[in-house]
Write a structure and sequence with these properties.
alpha+beta, 5-stranded mixed beta sheet, two-stranded antiparallel sheet, 9 strands
């Protein structure tokens, strides 16, 4: 009888290296697709947040017959005592945050009394999931009449802000002035739909302004710079006008002809900014959301950020 020995089969070293190489190639091919799918999901979530904000703003307008102001320094709809109050605070009931709104003391400025405790409550609808994780906001430089703040509880952030309009001297002082430079929601405003002469579907109300108050330049945090606005969702002074910036974010407001032609994503202190690739979302006055490519011309973006600038040459391109 012949004895059959059990032979032990195994990979040779060469075969093992080939398998590892194939796995590495497959992982390299799959990772970009996975990351792309994740970012697409984050963009959809960000868009959904802005859509809900838009519905809340429109519901506020339906109740009060005017759009909320970006921030108040005097009495107005939703702010009977004339305290410094954010537009996000007055729409809290419309985004199912009535409990937070009840805790807020409307007789005091947002930085006074128990309001700072309310300011620490995170509200997910105000956060874009594509934005990078930020350090806690436990202090703030002064911005009159608000004093400098040293906080026990960190301020809850926001990645969305009202656009006031445009800065005429930064865009086109021969065309923009006090009569046509503003958007729908600006300081102490009480604009109705009838004030949107360009049409509600052509007028931006809210833009992405992610990462604040940390200062960013083209995706890089600037530790040496401090921002006194956009401290959190409760901040009434976070809204800004479009200036335009240089592509590297180092300069602002020098006009497109002098190199300040970037309409978004160059700098996040007082300019539209997102952590999405190649653009950012904008909420329009009719409630629709559009993803705007960051290559959009400054003149077109300026026309979209105003409610009564129909004669701007840039509008022809936007349409």
């Amino acid at each position: 009888m012949k004895l059959h020995r059990n032979r032990r089969f195994a990979f040779t070293l060469v075969e093992l290296l080939v398998v590892i190489s194939i796995i590495g190639i497959l992982v390299g091919l799959l990772l970009p697709a996975i990351n792309s799918a994740r970012e697409a999901a984050r963009r959809m979530s960000c868009q959904s947040n802005q859509r809900q904000i838009g519905l809340a703003v429109l519901n506020f307008e339906s109740s009060h017959k005017v759009f909320p102001a970006s921030g108040w320094t005097q009495a107005g709809p939703g702010n009977p005592y004339g305290t410094y109050m954010s537009w996000r605070t007055v729409i809290l009931p419309q985004i199912e945050q009535t409990n937070v709104r009840t805790l807020y003391d409307i007789q005091q400025h947002w930085w006074q009394g128990s309001n700072l405790a309310v300011a620490s409550i995170p509200i997910s609808i105000f956060l874009c999931p594509s934005a990078t994780t930020q350090p806690p906001v436990l202090s703030a430089v002064a911005k009159s009449p608000r004093p400098a703040l040293a906080l026990n509880l960190p301020l809850a952030r926001t990645d969305y802000e009202a656009i006031l309009g445009v800065q005429p001297n930064s865009i086109d002082p021969t065309f923009y002035d006090a009569s046509n430079r503003f958007s729908v929601m600006h300081r102490n405003s009480m604009n109705r739909f009838g004030a949107i002469l360009d049409g509600s579907s052509n007028t931006i109300m809210v833009v992405e302004a992610a990462g604040r108050p940390t200062v960013y330049r083209r995706g890089i945090a600037q530790a040496a710079l401090r921002n006194d606005q956009g401290l959190g969702w409760i901040d009434s002074e976070g809204a800004f006008s479009l200036d335009g910036a240089s592509r590297d974010g180092a300069r602002e407001g020098c006009r497109a002809a002098n190199g300040c032609s970037a309409a978004m994503n160059a700098k996040n202190d007082n300019e539209p900014y997102s952590f999405h690739s190649a653009g950012s979302h904008a909420l329009f006055a009719d409630g629709h959301i559009a993803f705007l490519n960051e290559s959009i011309s400054l003149s077109v973006m300026a026309a979209l950020c105003t409610r009564a600038a129909a004669d701007d040459p840039g509008n022809e391109v936007a349409e």
